[in-house]
Amino acid sequence: MVVVDSFLRYLITEKRYSTHTVRSYQNDLVQFEKFISDTQSSDSLTNCSSRHVRSWIISMLDNGMSPRSVNRKITTLRRFYRFCQNTGAVRNNPATNIPSLKTAKPLPVFVQESQMINILNTVTENMDFTSLRNLLVLELLYGTGIRVTELTGLKDFNADTVKQQIKVLGKRNKERIIPIYEGLSSLIGEYRVKRDQQFQETPSGFLIVTDTGKNAYPRLIYRIVNAALSGESVAGRKSPHVLRHTYATHLLNHGAELNAIKELLGHASLSATQVYTHTGFEKLKKVYEKAHPRA
Questions:
Q1: 241 is catalytic
Q2: Which of 208, 113, 94 is nearest to 153 (CA)?
């Protein structure tokens, strides 16, 4: 459909959304179009009403889809039909008065400090390339809070061990500079020596590479993190994003300001960072138990 193609191009060129995000929008629109065609006597996305949207929402909930997932699809329709209005493809937005469903906000999963110390407390001397690379992946994720895509996209020259900082390209092509600790700088240096010994050259120019010298990919990073967290018997999810949560949680527990954590994580608004304040209660509880005479 021409208007859908135009909308997807708009997301890529104007909004600069990632390929993954654009694909999600496309899938949502394909699913909605199929629904209204099969069940609602409408064969076009530009020829439907709020009744069609409500029916789709009910159908998804009846089929067991979570309110959070349904809300994401509602967002897709809102933005699509707003685009259609602006371009003259439709007169009325059928998703305008559709409210979002109430959802329970999940607390971020994070690793305890003692567990992270055990995971990272590894002697690097005489390590082979793969083991050193895997350790560096864990240290970078926990030591900087970067996303998986930011890690796999990290260029070698953007890791400055002299200034002890890395420059990453985040969401919507926003750059940010993140400080790194001395131990992480040293580990990057050790890794580079081992990598250059292993491979005569790394034409990709990326810092983290595979066992064959090619640019690392998200699935590899997931396997590295999952194996490390499983070995320490960490409860719950064992994905790279857990280390991002852990980074933020530990910073907050040690007195970092919320605004500073927001900048380090590359969040667009403070509301996205405030989810980590739940961990402050754990710290306050310990203070209370130690300080209050009746505790």
A1: yes
A2: 208
Cα–Cα nearest to 74, from 34, 12, 29, 41: 29
pLDDT digits (tens, 9 = 90+) for 167-207: 999 888 899 999 999 999 999 999 999 999 998 776 678 99
Residue 129: Cβ within 10 Å count: 16
* Rounded distance between C-alpha atoms, residue 253 and residue 116, angstroms: 15
Q: Which is more confident, 112 or 289? A: 112
Please check whether the domain covering 113-289 is classified as CATH 2.130.10.10. Answer: no
Q: Where are the domains of the chain?
A: 2-87, 113-289
Q: Which of 79, 155, 267, 278 is catalytic?
A: 267
CATH number of this structure's domain 2-87, picked from the four choices 1.10.150, 1.10.287, 2.60.40, 3.40.720: 1.10.150
Q: Would residue 192 show up in a list of annotated catalytic residues for this protein? A: no
Q: For residues 102-116, give the mean pLDDT.
A: 83
For residue 108, the model assigns a pLDDT of 79
Per the residue annotation, which of 171, 176, 214, 278 is the catalytic one?
A: 171
Give the C-alpha separation, 77 to 71, whole Å.
10
Question: Which strand ranges, in their side-by-side order, compose the sheet holding 165-169?
Answer: 159-160, 165-169, 175-179
pTM: 0.65
pLDDT given at position 37: 87
What sign has the CA pseudo-torsion 256, 143, 146, 222?
Answer: negative
Catalytic choice (147, 195, 238, 262):
147
Verify whether residue 10 is a known catalytic residue.
Answer: no
Reply yes or no on whether 9 is catalytic: no
Is 147 annotated in the active site? yes
Task: Give which of 207, 202, 196 is closest to 167, Cα–Cα.
Answer: 207
Task: Please confirm, yes or no, whether 142 is among the known catalytic residues.
Answer: no
